[in-house]
Amino acid sequence: MTTSEVVPVPSDLAELPKAELHVHLEGTVRPSTQAEWAQRTVVDIPRKFHNLDTFIQMYAGFWRTMHTPGDYERLVREYCEDAAQGGIRYAEIQLATAGRPYPALVEAVEEAQRQSDVVVRFVVDVPRSLPVEVGWAMLEAAKGVPDVIGIGLGGPEAPFPPEPFAELFAEGRSRGLRSLPHAGEEAGPQSVRGAIEALGAERIMHGVRCIEDPGLVSELVERGIGLDVCPTSNLLLGVARSMNHHPLKDLWDAGVLISINTDDPGYFGCELTGEYALAGEALGLDREGYGRLALNSVEGSFAPEAVKAEMRSGIADWVGRGG
Q: Is 90 helix (H, G, I), strand (E, B) or coil?
C-alpha cells in the first residue's frame, strides 16, 4: 500500500461496537494494579520479555501475585471499565485458575454478572506445559459454573503439541464447551491442524502461521473456522517483524474469518480500538471495512443471539453515520 492509499482512521472508532474474543483475564491487569500486587508479594518477577518464552516467565511471575480473594473480582471489574470505553460490548475471556487457594473462577463469573456495559463469558485456559491432569482438575472445577462457554489451551506451543489433550477436549465438548485453543503462533501449520483434528477447534487463538500452508488456509475458509488475531502481541513476541511482514492482509484477502483482539493488554500496553486502527491501516480499511471487522468478531463469537442482534444493529448504525 502506498502513502496515497492510506485511509484515515475514523475519529469515532472507539464507538464502534466490538466483541473481544481473545483476551486473558490475568493479562488485562492494569499497570497500577500490577505494581500494587507486586509490592504485597515477595516474588522475583522478570520485568522484560522479547519472545513467547520470556513473556510466559514474566506472566507467570505476576500470576503468582494474584492469590487473594477479591483479586479476580477486581480484574473483571477493571477490565469491563476499560473495555466499555473502547466499544467492547461482549467478551470471551480466558482465565487459568489452576492451583488457586480460593474459587477464583466463581468469583470472576459473579462479578461479570454484575456488569451492565459488557456481557462476559469465560473460557477455561488449560496450561499446555503442565500435566494434562491439571486440565482435568480445571474442567471439573468449571462444572456447573454458569457463563463458562469454552475450553482453551495456552502456554508455550512449540514443545507442547495439542494431541495429548485430545481426550480432555473431547470431554469438554461433550459438556457443551466450545473448543478454543491457541495454535499457529509459536508453532507452524501442523499445530493448527492438530488443534482442529485432535481438539475439534471451532476457532483458533492466533493461528496466523497457517499462512505457510495454503491448503490449510483454504480449509479454514471452507469450514468457517475463525482466527482470533492479536497484532501488537504478534509484533512484541516476534511472530512478525512488522505489520508489513504480518500475514493479516493475506489471510483477510483469502476470506478467513478474522477477529482483532488484545491478548494481554496489561502487559502489551494496547487496547482494542488501537488494535483495530493498527489492523485497519494494514488492510486499508474504509468505514465499511471497519464495520466488517467488528461484524466478524460478532459472528465468530458464541454470544447470546440477542446480544449479537443488538451488536449487528449498532455496527450498522456506526457504519451509516459515516455517510
A: strand
Q: Map out the domains of the chain with their CATH numbers.
A: 3-321 (3.20.20.140)
- Tens of pLDDT, residues 214-225: 999 999 999 999
HSE at residue 234, side-chain half, CA atoms within 13 A, is 30
Known catalytic residue at 185: yes
Contact 223, 195 (CB under 8 A): no
Return the percentage of the chain with pLDDT > 90, whole number.
89
Which residues of the chain form beta strands (DSSP E)?
A: 18-24, 88-95, 119-127, 148-154, 178-179, 182-183, 203-206, 226-229, 258-260
pTM of the complete model beyond 0.90: yes
* 50 vs 14: CA distance, rounded Å: 29
The phi and psi torsions of 95 (rounded to 5 degrees) equal -150, 145
Which residue among 185, 186, 202, 275 is the active-site one? 185
